[in-house]
Amino acid sequence: MRLKPGALLRFYSLCGILVQVAATKNKARGSQGQFPLTQNVTVVEGGTANLTCRVDQNDNTSLQWSNPAQQTLYFDDKKALRDNRIELVRASWHELSISVSDVSLSDEGQYTCSLFTMPVKTSKAFLTVLGVPEKPQITGFTSPVMEGERMQLTCKTSGSKPAADIRWFKNDKEVKDVKYLKEEDANRKTFTVSSTLDFLADRSDDGAVVSCRVDHESLNSTPQIAMQVLEIHYTPLVKIISSNSWPEEGQSIILTCESKGKPVPEPVLWTKDGGELPDPERMVVNGRVLSISFLNKTDNGTYRCEAKNPIGRNSTEYVLIVHDPNALAGQTGPDHALIGGIVAVVVFVTLCSIILLGRYLARHKGTYLTNEAKGAEDAPDADTAIINAEGSQVNAEEKKEYFI
Known about the structure:
Elements (H helix, E strand, L loop, with lengths): L4 H27 L9 E4 L4 E6 L8 E4 L5 E4 L2 E2 L6 E6 L3 E6 L8 E7 L5 E10 L6 E3 L5 E2 L3 E11 L4 E6 L2 E3 L3 E6 L6 E10 L8 E7 L8 E6 L2 E11 L10 E10 L6 E4 L10 E4 L2 E4 L8 E9 L2 E9 L4 H6 L1 H47 L3 H9 L2 H11 L1
Parallel strand pairs: 1-9, 11-19
Antiparallel strand pairs: 2-7, 3-4, 3-8, 4-5, 6-7, 8-9, 10-12, 12-16, 13-14, 13-17, 15-16, 17-18, 19-20, 20-23, 21-24, 22-23, 24-25
């Protein structure tokens, strides 16, 4: 059967439609496994951010990057936005990578990668821009500071995002008791932070190094540090050192006056018992040193060393006692003699006590035997003998002597 020309045309059109529908269904089934993949990016202000969008399965479908304002940056390998900071890194059916150099805080936001399937599929990547804190500065120090005055040092840094952390150190030892203040900058993106160190100046702080350290994630573990060397003025601290701990007559002695202060103390002043040194020929002052030669008893007394500087003055004393070497040797003999005498007396008294005790016991034993013998001569019994013995006291002494 022959078809008419009009019917044949309608047949071909119908076949074309069926083929197109089948192709669209196949394309739709193929695009079901396609999905763009992106990652969030963090970059330091002024650095370069790399944005990458990947597709595992792609049947020649276009990729596109757009910024937070939904402006197209790149469509496949074609640049859409005139910004010299934005460049193409790689463009293929499976990847679209771009870079943004000299990143500013205004570049922060959500970027979108679009895959133009039916329907369009997207993936978001958030770009975080870190604000770098400015180099810190220490204020509030006026040189010099007098001992006992209150010091307030302030460390300040601006432009950090997020807010930076400030720590204080004195000679590498961290100081914890400080005040911390955080304020938002005018751009409402970055922060200004400050910290105050408050303490009373002490002479031990003179020459100490006070440092303020700023830590922030944008510094890559390399903190920014500001330092200040302290200068504290204080009154002299005075001490006398003797060269001889047991000075004797005829010897010499050197007294050294050590004085430490800031500013450096003036030459020291030596006095004796509240007045001038009495014998300049033997008592010689050379700077901070007092030398006394050929010591004698007249040198005994209180020696004072006084030092002063523009802040004030201070003094200390040394009591000098000159010893007689002969008297010292004589004092040693009597001590031993006294001990020996005491021992001799104790021995003598002990021997005498033993002798007397022996004589006493012997005498009483003889008396008893004599009395008993005498009374027994005339007495018929023991009681009568004792009575007779009491009446013969004169003869008893003779009998005692006999038995002894």
